[in-house]
Amino acid sequence: MLGAIAGDIVGSVYENLRTKRKDFRLFTPVSTFTDDTVLTVAVADAILTGREYGPVIKSYARKHPLRGYGPRFLKWMVSPGVKPYNSFGNGSAMRVSPVAYAFDSEDEVLREAQRTAECTHNHPEGIKGAQATALAIFLARHGADKETIRTTIAGRFNYDLARTVDGIRPTYRADLTCQGSVPEAIIAFLDSTSFEDALRNAVSLGGDADTQACIAGAIAEAHYRAIPAPILQKIPKKLSKSLWRTTSEFTRRFGIKEIIQQLEALDAG
């Protein structure tokens, strides 16, 4: 979950100022959290409190209304009910990472990923994007190597993960759909050499930078089992107190040991 938030903040500047370079500045004075972080924390809060995903997601969005939501989500956000709108946008994938930590079997993770998606993104591709992201994180959390993650996700979801970041980058353009952005974000992780490199890969695609870095960062956190201190230290400074409180509580309850130790060291420092 922290990896997803870090990716969102790092990518926030480059969602509109797109880059095809990897040597970009990680944090700027205007780096901030976007809808990716708000809704990720909403999913975490729903899990912590045992509430339904849809109402919690809507509540969080209304409390943080100017964070880059898409037009169809905004319409849903202000509507009185929680009827889904058949979206296959990548919003379902960007918010799903807490599921991969809170549940302990592939079946549970896939089921809960679907539930987090279908309150808005009930199109098959929207559900598929959330499930693929959650399962990739879950596999990494349980020690699967990159090739196992690649073959499992490609086989189950029919994503083309045989490509490389260098091969994708030259002609890739922003694509807000799950099917046009989630596989590329997973490849950004698969091609990485470190947590930071995964974020740089994702942003350098020149696409939906915050969301793709959010997805790649979520998987990278589980795989590398650490977030570089200069990146981790920025997260509580960029979040509101309430968002950080829920993030910290969820991580301490469900996070992997190494990340919890990093949080404790951050508190001690």
The value of Rg in angstroms is: 16 Å
CATH domain class name: Mainly Alpha
Q: What's the SSE pattern?
A: HHHHHHHHHHHHHHHHH
The secondary-structure class comes to: mainly alpha
Mean pLDDT: 97
Span between N and C termini?
Answer: 22 Å
The low-confidence parts are none
CATH superfamily: ADP-ribosylation/Crystallin J1
**Strand tally, please?**
0
Summarize the amount of helix as a percent range: 55-70%
- CATH topology category name: ADP-ribosylglycohydrolase fold
Strand-residue proportion: under 5%
What shape does the CA trace take?
Answer: globular
Count of separate structural domains? 1
Main sheet overview: none
Write structural notes for this entry:
With about 270 residues, the chain is mainly alpha-helical. It has a single domain, classed as Orthogonal Bundle (ADP-ribosylglycohydrolase fold). Helix content is about 65%, strand content about 0%. The two termini are about 20 Å apart. The model has no long low-confidence stretch (mean pLDDT about 95).
Give me a quick take on this structure.
By secondary structure, this protein is mainly α. Helix content is 65%, strand content 0%. The chain has helices at residues 2-12, 35-49, 53-63, 71-78, 91-94, 97-102, 106-118, 124-141, 146-157, 165-168, 178-190, 195-203, 209-224, 229-232, 234-238, 241-254, 257-268.
